[in-house]
Structures are given as C-alpha cells and as structure tokens.
Amino acid sequence: MTTLRAYDAQQIQRTLGSIELMWPGRRGEIQGQPLHPGLRSRWFESVGMFSALFVRIAFALLLAGALSIGAFAFSPWWLAPVAAAVLLNVRIALSMSDRTAGDVLFAALLIPAEIFTWIRMSQFVRAWSLFLSRERGDRAAAQNDPAAHAGRHRSRSRRRSR
C-alpha cells in the first residue's frame, strides 16, 4: 500500500470479510461457522479493538468530567501503563529482522503509535457499520479510486429521490 487511502480501503475490506465469516448466514449461500478454530484470532482481534475503543473513549469522558468539576488530580501511577506499552512496542520493534532506526523510533514515541491505533479503530468501526448496514459496493475498487465507491452510492440516492 503506497497511500493511507489505499491502506484504509484494504483494511476495511479485510476486517469486513472477517466479520462476515464470523457471522453465520450473512454471505448468502455460506452458512458460516462462528466458532470455527480458524476464526479464533479474528474474534480476539474484534474484542481487542472494541475494548481499545471503549477504554480510550471512557478515558476521554472521565477526564473531561473530572476537569469540568475541578476534581482532576494527577497520579504518577497513570504513567505505568503508558510506559509498559512503549516498552512492549520497542521490544517488538527490536525483534524485527529488517528493522530500521525509524521503526524503533516509531515504537519509542507514544504519539505515532497512538495515531496509528486511532486509524485502525476508525477502520474497525467503519467495517462494522458497513456490515450492520448491509451496504454493498466495490470496496476493492476503493483501494485504487475511493471516488468510484462513493460516487456509485450517490447515484443510487439520486435515483431514489426522483
């Protein structure tokens, strides 16, 4: 993937495909086997993404609430999970065979990894919303030309309004 737009479309397609495999009977003729051992990693990924999204949103809401009533009191213990996450990222980066200095720097800095996590969570939410809305379109074409996917749905909505 050479652009974020292409990576985004590819990840949404991948996540949507795994969600459809986990959900029985949603692909038409395929009955689905949601408890198949091969789908275990997909279930863990889904639970992990939902929990990561919940924790970040809950933290933001609790922080905003505490700041609004003047009850915020910083504790150094709050930095322990952040430090553990950075150390884990650095350990993973150092275990890569073809790592560069940029890989290790990306792992050592918190902000780039957090931005990437938010991008992944947005892709996950969009894939679930596509799945739940039962919207169908050419998401493979969206990897190369996102306007093709968006324009296709705009023309349908124009036909309905007439």
Automatic annotation (TrEMBL):
Species of provenance: Microbacterium suwonense
Protein name in the entry: Uncharacterized protein
Protein keywords: Membrane, Transmembrane, Transmembrane helix
Compositional bias of kind Basic residues: 150-162
Lineage: Bacteria, Bacillati, Actinomycetota, Actinomycetes, Micrococcales
Region Disordered, annotated ranges: 141-162
Segments traversing the membrane: 47-71, 101-119
UniProt superkingdom: Bacteria
